[in-house]
Structures are given as structure tokens and as C-alpha cells.
Design a protein that fits this description.
Elements lengths: L2 E3 L6 H10 L2 E5 L10 E4 L5 H4 L8 H6 L8 E6 L15 H11 L4 E6 L19 H7 L2 E4 L2 H9 L4 E4 L5 H8 L4 E4 L5 H13 L4 H15 L3 H17 L1
Parallel strand pairs: 1-2, 2-3, 4-5, 4-6, 6-7, 7-8
Length: about 240
């Protein structure tokens, strides 16, 4: 038996294979694609596998030990490399436009940049220098996350950090995190989407209670969502038993 969890609607080739070879395909209840009889919708998010409070606790001290100040107000900018299979034909911001964003957000605290494609010399001073495995602690204590990547935007949301998701790719999870929980704001169309996202980010950053509001929204999200770890294990055990009969 093969049990799969999938939340990326645009991974069409992979999904075609999984529909043939997987025994059961778990997806968020908000998944935008019908995968047929093997699909089982669960009211949860992928990110809760590793960011649910039962398995993850944000820790300021581990950041301090890594030379990062979690108490200083900061904004995280996340740019993707645009080399995934579902990114073919898409592109992001120029170096000049990224620098303009950095300067714009610098009015609200320190700005850190995480870029899958690598940082240019001009952006290097803003590099997020923490070890990769500490990135979720960084997300948890940020004032705001501005991201081209859906995963990091969604991770910020489930941690109670407001985020901007700027990408033409639409997902059911990020849409719900915007419309149901108002932790994430999606900018999926228009040549001016980066500018509109920055405008909304500045509006949020002007709120001195932004972090408190984020944690209140997160509490509602966690109360309404399934803890996917326990659910996944129970499904795996059920399929294993059925396979042995």
C-alpha cells in the first residue's frame, strides 16, 4: 500500500503517476483538483506535519545562540529560483526591484532576504544567515513575511505570522489562509502584484498589535484544523492491516 499526502495542484505529471500507483491520496479539504476515488480530503495543511504545536515550539534562544536577534523587529523576504517543473515560463523580480523592496520595508525594522537562486553582491548584506534548519523559528518571530514561495508563506501563516504570497500559482491552501483566516494575502495576478503586495504589507506593518492579532488568528486556525500527524499514522496503519489480509 502507498499512502500519499499532496497539496500542490499544479504538479500535474506527479499527480498523474500517483493516481495510478498510490492506494490513497490525502489532500487538504480546499484542494482545487478532483483526483478521483483514491482522494480523501482532510481539513488540514501540509505544514502542520512539522509545525503543529504538538511537534514544534518556536524558540528564541536557539536563534540567539546562532547569532540572530529574534527580539529586534524584522521582515523576511523570500524569493524562489523559478526552476521547479511548475515554474517553467515564469520569472520574478530583478535585482533592482528586490533592492527597492528591501529599502521600502527597512522603515519597519531589519530586513532579511532568503533567495533560492542565491544572493547578488548588492543583496548579500541582507542575507538570512541562520542555519537552514532554524528557518521556522525565524518565521515565527518575524513581523511579516513577503514570499514568492507558497510553502514558506503558508508556514508563516500556520505560525501566526502575517504573510504576502506573490505568485501566479494559486493553491487551495493559500486561498483559504487568506479568505478564512486572514493570515495570508494572495497576489496571484497583474503585472503590479508585487507593488500591491508591498502596499498591503505596509498597511499591516503600521499596526502595532500585528503580532498579537496574528497569534489570535493562529489559535482559531489550530482549533479548526486536524492534527495531520495522528491522522496520517492511523490511515497508514489501516492500509497496512488491509494489505496483510
Amino acid at each position: 500500500p502507498h499512502l500519499l499526502y499532496e497539496d500542490t495542484e499544479v504538479s500535474k505529471f506527479s499527480l498523474r503517476l500517483c493516481k495510478v500507483f498510490s492506494t490513497e491520496i490525502l489532500t487538504p479539504s480546499t484542494f482545487l483538483t478532483d483526483l478521483g476515488p483514491k482522494q480523501k480530503r482532510v481539513d488540514t495543511y501540509k505544514e502542520l506535519f512539522y509545525l503543529h504545536p504538538n511537534v514544534f515550539t518556536p524558540d528564541r534562544q536557539v536563534l540567539r545562540e546562532a547569532g540572530f536577534d529574534p527580539d529586534e523587529p524584522y521582515v523576511l523576504l523570500r524569493f524562489v529560483a523559478w526552476n521547479a517543473s511548475h515554474d517553467i515560463g515564469k520569472r520574478g523580480l530583478t535585482e533592482e526591484a528586490k533592492l527597492a523592496l528591501v529599502k521600502r520595508f527597512a522603515r519597519y525594522g531589519r530586513v532579511y532576504v532568503s533567495d533560492e537562486g542565491g544572493l547578488t553582491e548588492a543583496l548579500e548584506p541582507y542575507a538570512l544567515g541562520t542555519p537552514y534548519e532554524l528557518v521556522h523559528h525565524v518565521l515565527a518571530f518575524a513581523r511579516l513575511v513577503y514570499s514568492e514561495g507558497a510553502t514558506m508563506a503558508s508556514e508563516a501563516a500556520v505560525l501566526g505570522t502575517h504573510g504576502m504570497y506573490v505568485n501566479t500559482i494559486i493553491s487551495g491552501s493559500t486561498r483559504e489562509q487568506c479568505e478564512r483566516y486572514h493570515l495570508l494575502y494572495n497576489f496571484n495576478d497583474g503585472e503590479d502584484r508585487y507593488e500591491r503586495a508591498a502596499d498591503k504589507a505596509e498597511e499591516l506593518l503600521s499596526d502595532p498589535d500585528l503580532e498579537t492579532r496574528g497569534q489570535e488568528k493562529r489559535a482559531r486556525l489550530l482549533a479548526e484544523k486536524v492534527d495531520i500527524n495522528g491522522y496520517f499514522l492511523s490511515e497508514a496503519e489501516r492500509l497496512a492491516k488491509a494489505g496483510r489480509k
